[in-house]
Design goal:
By secondary structure, this protein is mostly beta strands. It has one domain (22-83): Alpha-Beta Plaits. Helices cover 11% and strands 33% of the residues. The protein has helices at 32-36, 70-74, and strands spanning 6-7, 13-14, 18-22, 42-49, 52-59, 80-83. A two-stranded antiparallel sheet has the order 1-2. Strands 3-6 form a two-stranded antiparallel sheet. The protein is elongated, with a radius of gyration of 15 Å. It binds iron/sulfur cluster (SF4) (2 copies). Residues 19, 36-37, 39, 41-42, 65-71 line the site of one iron/sulfur cluster.
Length: 87
């Protein structure tokens, strides 16, 4: 199976891993991922829980993702799942 590949500056190839899901159950809404993503992929979502409201991160524009995985590296709760994209 062939996947979309990228090129480093030294012209060697790599396989980007694009955002697949964020686990809303484990997300604590810290926004670290939101701050590192420069491609408008993520947005906050608010859900009502009993007497309080919980914020969590949502994948809103998956097609903007460049597959850098910076969001996943910054997440201490390991909420992210990534996948390569088949050509
Ligand atoms: S993999 Fe990169 S571009 Fe995609 S959502 Fe995460 S930080 Fe943004
Ligand atoms: S870094 Fe992880 S825990 Fe924090 S908002 Fe993003 S997905 Fe949620």
């Amino acid at each position: 199976m062939a996947y979309i590949t990228g090129l480093r500056r030294n012209k060697t190839e790599y396989t980007p891993e694009f955002i697949k899901t964020i686990d809303a159950e484990t997300c604590i809404g810290c926004a670290r991922c939101f701050k590192v993503c420069a491609h408008d992929v993520l947005t906050f979502e608010e859900v009502d829980e009993d007497d309080s409201a919980k914020m969590y991160m949502k994948v809103s524009n998956p097609d903007n993702c460049i597959g850098c995985q910076a969001c996943g590296r910054t997440c201490s709760k390991k909420c992210f799942a990534f996948e390569p994209v088949v050509l």
